[in-house]
């Protein structure tokens, strides 16, 4: 299957129905899910909700989606570019297995997706959000060129630990990205 994007160490491609076990293993790690749902996602839910939603996304938005990430050591997780309510704005995201943490993959993949969004996809803005207490992810956002934009608080009926510190939004517009690329 054709790659959606390739970097020096990463190859991103669309998921298929054959990737259920890889996604289920990723989402079953409580540390990977800590700032997302706070608990592992069951294999049944990955098979009946998560993977079908990913596959349906390709049809709805052919240039965007959630993409399987492979490094020299094999499957490491996923990266995604998702549509937002704002025109010509995409949300960048990533979920990597613990074995891939601390190796620069998250920053490498995110930078490549930002470049693709601005150069190939004609986007004007890239955004990313996380819990304010998710410092590792915030570091990736900063290293990728995204800039802190705002902090906000949401009400959750069953909040995760750290929710009281809020959510953060990081963003980058095309003009800033182009200016930074020429410094």
From TrEMBL:
Residues 10-175 form the N-acetyltransferase domain. It comes from the Bacteria. PROSITE patterns: GNAT. InterPro entries: Acyl_CoA_acyltransferase, GNAT_dom, N-acetyltransferase. One of its GO terms (molecular function) is acyltransferase activity, transferring groups other than amino-acyl groups. This is GNAT family N-acetyltransferase. It comes from Kribbella sp. HUAS MG21.
């Amino acid at each position: 299957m054709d790659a959606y994007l390739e970097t020096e160490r990463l190859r991103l491609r669309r998921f298929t129905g054959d990737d259920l076990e890889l996604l289920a293993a990723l989402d079953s790690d409580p540390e990977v899910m800590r700032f997302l749902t706070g608990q592992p996602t069951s294999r049944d839910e990955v098979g009946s909700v998560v993977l079908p939603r990913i596959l349906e996304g390709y049809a709805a938005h052919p240039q965007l989606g959630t993409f399987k990430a492979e490094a020299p050591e094999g499957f490491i997780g996923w990266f995604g570019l998702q549509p937002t309510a704002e025109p010509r704005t995409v949300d960048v995201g990533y979920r990597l297995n613990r074995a891939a943490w601390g190796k620069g993959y998250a920053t490498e993949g995110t930078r490549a997706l930002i470049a693709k969004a601005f150069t190939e996809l004609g986007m004007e803005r890239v955004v990313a959000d996380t819990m304010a207490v998710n410092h590792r992810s915030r570091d990736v956002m900063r290293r990728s060129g995204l800039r802190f934009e705002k902090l906000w608080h949401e009400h959750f009926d069953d909040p995760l630990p750290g929710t009281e510190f809020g959510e953060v939004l990081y963003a980058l517009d095309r003009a800033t990205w182009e200016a930074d690329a020429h410094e």
